[in-house]
Design brief:
Chain B: GO terms for molecular function: arsenite transmembrane transporter activity. Chain B: It is found in: Cell membrane. Chain B: Its main location: membrane. The complex is a heterodimer. By secondary structure, chain A is α+β, with helices and mostly antiparallel strands. Chain A contains seven helices and five strands. Chain A has a single domain, classed as CBS-domain (Roll), CATH 3.10.580. In chain A, strand 4 and strand 5 form a beta hairpin. The longest helix of chain A is centred in the first third of the chain and has 10 residues. Chain B has one domain. The longest helix of chain B is centred in the middle third of the chain and has 26 residues. Chain B is an all-alpha fold. The chains are: A alpha+beta, B mainly alpha. Chains A and B meet through helix 4 of A and helix 7 of B.
Chain lengths: 151, 442
């Protein structure tokens, strides 16, 4: 069994030029944590996640590398956090992508399981040569397949 | 082979000179880690026969090494308390979150903290709070970061422990904490004030923030920045004692390294008191991991390389050449040292430069009537080497740390843009120092 057999071949995707607001709508409506982002040729560019949204609600100085380790002194309530998120909602998702490890369609099931076990909730499956996104694989996909397997 | 274990001959002088130039070149190229370069060069100094191992070890200034490690350990523990963030927020609120007032206050906090603790740690901990404040005020962080770079290097110049060049000079000459404070702090206060003038005219007078944004900063609770009150009290007590130790070091017949290392040991003891052995081991290891071992081993290697060069008589030769050039005039020599160290420190690492200049100035002492006579030269070297670091983005480690933060915050500090403003301001600070040296000593 390979990643091709385990993945969801029709995942929700975003374009690089889509806005944060559009991404947030997908994440909330479809209860997604990670959405792969592709360019005009369908090549995988990165992942926009629910964590990107949380990051957008916080000041940059808090979320940046080597930023503030303690921000308890900032007395912000939910309206301020919401305001910051709203102010950034028209930014394109391209600015807020994370580059996670990917699987290839012919990656072994063992590699796929190990990657998921290492804490990656869902992993993009990308063609090796063209870098085109062919699917997404989550722990749910794998468990569904494994439990449906007849003895 | 002479007394120091070095072989004094023209052949060895050439070997040492070539090795020294290559070391400098490779360190400047930044292609190889500087600690590796210095240690390889030190090894070659011994293998090629310029020094034997005993002489090489004698060349290492353990007072400098001990002082650096001791202060790094104290800073490593202190930073966990949140005091740096507290000071930054407190200072912003003291000026009612006025954008220009914040720039001045944060610069002063950076300068004062850098005078007593390591510059890099200071900016590492104050810059994120500054970025947060500028984000809340919706003002560009660039002027603040620019000013902090200057403040950290200016503040570091004021004391024996503020900047590595001063630590090296103090250790090599026996100049005390009080000597540095008495001779350098007055001019540093003037330089700091003067530096804020062009910053005001270039950026400060245009800084504006909306009342509601200022109100958000005023709502910051600085007490929440303190993560561990018990640790904070311990750190402040030990830092206070260490500073007192430096002030009375001569009276107590103590070297600076003894004061710093004992302070670090006491702080480790207090911070771990009452914890189980496993917890203690983890905390002690964490603190040791915070020591900048690359810098420490760079110093070790460099001391051996410079001692090798010095042992061959090459630096004495260079000192004689320099004296011939200045006609043996103290004022001219001080000016050459001040300006050359300022300009060179803006483009090359000031640590190897100062390490080389120390034996060179020592060799000049007989010409100027002994150690007392060369005193102005030490101040010229310190002021030039420390303040020169402001000239370019690569002039000091703290500059690069601030630039790294700026990049991550999406407000990059470009090399040329920085240099075009910073270099003239740095030259202005050297002019002030020039007149100060002339007025006070020459």
């Amino acid at each position: 069994m390979t990643a091709r057999n385990l993945m969801n071949p029709n995942p929700v995707t975003l374009r690089l030029t889509d806005t944060v607001a559009a991404a947030a709508e997908h994440i909330i409506k479809e209860h997604l944590r990670h959405i792969p982002v592709v360019d005009d040729q369908g090549r995988y560019a990165g992942t926009f996640s629910i964590y990107s949204l949380l990051q957008l609600a916080l000041p940059k100085a808090v979320t940046m590398k080597e930023g503030l380790s303690n921000a308890g002194f900032v007395n912000e309530e939910t309206p301020e956090l919401a305001r910051r998120l709203r102010e950034r909602s028209n930014e394109v998702v391209a600015n807020w992508l994370s580059k996670d490890p990917v699987l290839h369609p012919d990656s072994s099931a063992m590699d796929a399981l190990l990657l998921l076990l290492q804490g990656h909730v869902s992993v993009p499956v990308v063609e090796k040569t063209t870098q085109r996104l062919v699917g997404m694989m989550s722990s749910w996909n794998v468990i569904e397949k494994l439990t449906a397997e007849k003895p | 082979m002479h007394e120091s274990g070095a072989v004094a001959s023209t052949g060895y002088m050439w070997v040492a000179a070539i090795l020294f130039i290559i070391t400098y070149g490779v360190v400047m190229s930044e292609k190889v880690n500087r600690a590796i370069v210095a240690l390889v060069a030190a090894g070659l100094m011994i293998i090629l026969g310029v020094l034997n191992q005993e002489a090489a070890i004698r060349g290492i200034d353990f007072n400098t090494i001990g002082l650096l490690i001791g202060m790094m350990l104290i800073v490593a523990i202190t930073r966990q308390s949140g005091i740096f963030q507290y000071l930054a927020i407190w200072s912003a609120k003291k000026v009612n979150a006025n954008p220009w007032g914040i720039l001045v206050m944060i610069s002063l906090v950076t300068a004062v903290t850098s005078a007593f603790l390591d510059n890099v740690t200071t900016v590492l901990l104050v810059v994120p709070v500054t970025l947060l404040i500028t984000e809340e005020l919706k003002v560009k962080p660039y002027p603040y970061l620019f000013s902090m770079i200057f403040a950290s290097n200016i503040g570091g110049t004021a004391t024996l422990i503020g900047d590595p060049p001063n630590i090296m000079i103090g250790s090599a000459t026996g100049l005390t904490f009080n000597d540095f404070a008495w001779n350098l702090t007055p001019v540093i206060l003037v330089v700091m004030a003067a530096t804020l003038i062009p910053i005001y005219f270039i950026w400060g007078r245009h800084l504006r923030a909306a009342p509601e944004d200022r109100q958000r900063v005023m709502q910051f609770n600085e007490f929440e920045a303190i993560k561990d009150w018990r640790l904070l009290k311990q750190c402040l007590s030990v830092i206070g004692l260490v500073i007192l130790g430096f002030v009375f070091a001569k009276l107590l017949h103590l070297e600076a390294a003894t004061v710093a290392m004992t302070g670090a040991a006491i702080l480790l003891l207090l911070a771990n008191f009452g914890h189980d052995p496993e917890h203690q081991s983890k905390h002690v290891l964490d603190a040791f991991n915070e020591v900048e071992w690359i810098t420490i081993f760079f110093f070790v290697g460099l001391f051996i390389v410079v001692h090798g060069v010095d042992s061959t008589g090459l630096l004495k030769l260079l000192a004689d050449k320099m004296l011939a050039m200045t006609g043996g005039d103290l004022k001219a020599t001080a000016m050459v040292i001040l300006w050359s160290s300022a300009v060179l420190s803006a483009i090359i690492d000031n640590i190897p430069f100062v390490a080389t200049m120390i034996p060179l100035i020592k060799a000049m002492a007989p010409t100027f009537g002994g150690p007392e006579g060369v005193m102005p030269l030490w101040w010229a070297l310190s002021l030039g080497a420390c303040l020169g670091g402001n000239g370019t983005l690569i002039g000091a480690s703290a500059n690069l740390v601030v630039a790294g933060f700026a990049e991550r915050a999406g407000q990059p500090i470009r090399f040329m843009r920085y240099t075009l403003v910073a270099f003239p301001i740095m030259l202005m600070s050297i002019f002030i120092c020039m007149y100060y040296l002339e007025w006070r000593y020459l």
